[in-house]
Amino acid sequence: MRLLHIQSGHFVFRLTARDRVLLGEVLRHYPMASHEADPRSRRTPAAENTSSQTLLDEALAAGKAEGRRRLDALLQDRQRLAPRGTGAQLTLDRNDIEWFLQVLNDVRVGSWIRAGCPDPDQGREPRPTQATAPFFLTMELAAYYECVLLEALHGPSPARGDSR
Amino acid sequence: MADTIQPVILPDLDPTTDSQGKDALEPGYLVICWNDPVNLMVYVTHVFQVVFGWNRQKAEVHMLQVHRQGKSVLVRESLERAEHYVHQLQQYGLHATLERDRE
Questions:
Q1: Among residues 30-59 of chain A, which lie with CB inside 8 Å of chain B?
Q2: What's the ipTM?
Q3: Do A105 and B90 touch (CB under 8 A)?
Q4: Which domain holds residue B30?
Q5: What is the CATH number of the domain that holds B57?
Q6: DSSP secondary structure, B35-101, as one string
Q7: In this complex, is the C-beta atom of A119 within 8 Å of any C-beta atom belonging to chain B?
């Protein structure tokens, strides 16, 4: 997937046939991450205002359900995802890209959780098994598409692709 | 002869509610972003730029602080605004919390 041009605030991307399959596979998983299942929240001091965090969690879940509907609508919209030969042309405005980044990162974080939360800094090296290997792949694919969108917004970055 | 003292009726204040309301308006809450091994550095920088309207340089300073020190205090705000920011950061998949500023 690569940026073709930006016109009147619309970013037009070229998707190859492979992109259509791989991006579709990534997006199929959305929504994937949830705050309750996120081990990151158990590694830090308990957040203050737990009741408000519960409300935030509910709002996030509702937002993701709406996000799934929005995503389905986008994937069906031939104006915005137009077939081009064996590939496609995807047209997104700035707001779409912000939302699309959230979608992709949700899949990345959700895949990381299902892959066993690898964290080399903490001595948990990635150890793909037959069951978890697809999640490692999905995690990296989501990162790739995130980087394409970020590069379209900001241009190339020396830190691009580095994981924290 | 002294004037008769008229009873003064004061509004019935609920001190608990009052203090919570005042507290919520005071910029005494810290929004903290925590390090994790999954979010991309460039993504975190972008999110800080979007959520707080920071330039790239400032966003990168905080991103690197998260990366190297494990966390970064991003802003000090009222409870309501701090919750708003935490919600936005969590929408992007970052691990963010708020806590009361003890200083």
A1: 33, 35, 38, 40-41, 43-45, 47-49, 52, 56, 59
A2: 0.89
A3: no
A4: 26-100
A5: 3.30.1390.10
A6: --SSSBHHHHHHHHHHHH---HHHHHHHHHHHHHHSEEEEEEE-HHHHHHHHHHHHHTT--EEEEE-
A7: yes
Q: Provide the domain limits for residue A25.
A: 2-154
| Beta-ladder partners of B57 | none
> How large a percentage of chain B has pLDDT more than 90?
71
For residue A55, what pLDDT is reported? 84
Residue A150 lies in a domain: yes
Angle at A105 between CA A120 and CA A97, to 5 degrees: 145
* Tens of pLDDT, residues A67-94: 999 999 999 999 999 999 999 999 999 9
Residues of B in contact with A100 (CB under 8 A): none
In a domain, A114, yes or no: yes
For the whole model, what pTM was predicted?
Answer: 0.85
Chain A residues whose beta carbon lies within 8 Å of the beta carbon of residue B79: 49
Domains: count for chain B: 1
